[in-house]
């Protein structure tokens, strides 16, 4: 979850990037991951909101939850150690790899900017993975580097159809299983240049739904109630274009009798999270999910506390807890295991609970009727 303090400077570009861009090409990324899978089961590591910064421990904006900025890197290191002991088909990190605080840290003359250093240290851990890494982009990414830089650095191993602005994609992880990754900051006041149409669209949405946004000095949440609290800078939305892409992918998956797992940095089902951490146009996204039968579960970050709910169509919505707010003795990561019969299990570690995720009842009905 973001904070007003860190998002108030949700500016589109940071000058240091030009000076430190040499790191951009140094991250080892696996080759394009579109080879047809041979197996009908899979195991996928999962983690959300590492949010590392070389910064003293602090508090969230409400000053109710302690944040351990340096420790989160050690917890990521431990998670990578554990993932590497297993035979995994991939690891998916759900965004906010480094915290926005990095951008405000003092740069030592002749050394890399703290944002670059933080990202290098985090990637040194993730590059130890013996399996492919899949990434999502979160708001804290954009407080440190511009959007296209993140697309280049973290999404070079997935198919984006050559569009440098695009951050949503899909991957077939096993025979009968598909991962669909949404870009929940496609319409956003973060990441884009201020002159970009998506930035302008985001500001239009925000001002329409939250009168506080017109005055930069006002508390964003003053007078806001319930789910209206989602209309703040650290959240975002999706375009109709992305929703049509999602509809097309799900329609094809449905016809192929595949099961789909969906991933989004911002939660799209309100009961699985807080009013302050919901996708702006979550209703549009939920409507698309309910048009087909193939989506089994959705996984989110951004919230830090974690949560779980099942919607009216039987889709599981799971928000992961963040390592940033773990005690030194804790951690927060998991492994998703899908089998050839359509069974799905989340093997949780630390604050991430272990769950058996049943396939949707209507899906079972369909299979029974089909004989
Ligand atoms: Zn976030």
TrEMBL record:
<dbReference type="InterPro" id="IPR004843">
    <property type="entry name" value="Calcineurin-like_PHP"/>
</dbReference>
<dbReference type="GO" id="GO:0047631">
    <property type="term" value="F:ADP-ribose diphosphatase activity"/>
</dbReference>
<dbReference type="GO" id="GO:0047734">
    <property type="term" value="F:CDP-glycerol diphosphatase activity"/>
</dbReference>
<feature type="domain" description="Calcineurin-like phosphoesterase">
    <location>
        <begin position="45"/>
        <end position="305"/>
    </location>
</feature>
<dbReference type="GO" id="GO:0030145">
    <property type="term" value="F:manganese ion binding"/>
</dbReference>
<dbReference type="InterPro" id="IPR029052">
    <property type="entry name" value="Metallo-depent_PP-like"/>
</dbReference>
<dbReference type="Pfam" id="PF00149">
    <property type="entry name" value="Metallophos"/>
</dbReference>
<dbReference type="GO" id="GO:0008663">
    <property type="term" value="F:2',3'-cyclic-nucleotide 2'-phosphodiesterase activity"/>
</dbReference>
<protein>
    <recommendedName>
        <fullName>Calcineurin-like phosphoesterase domain-containing protein</fullName>
    </recommendedName>
</protein>
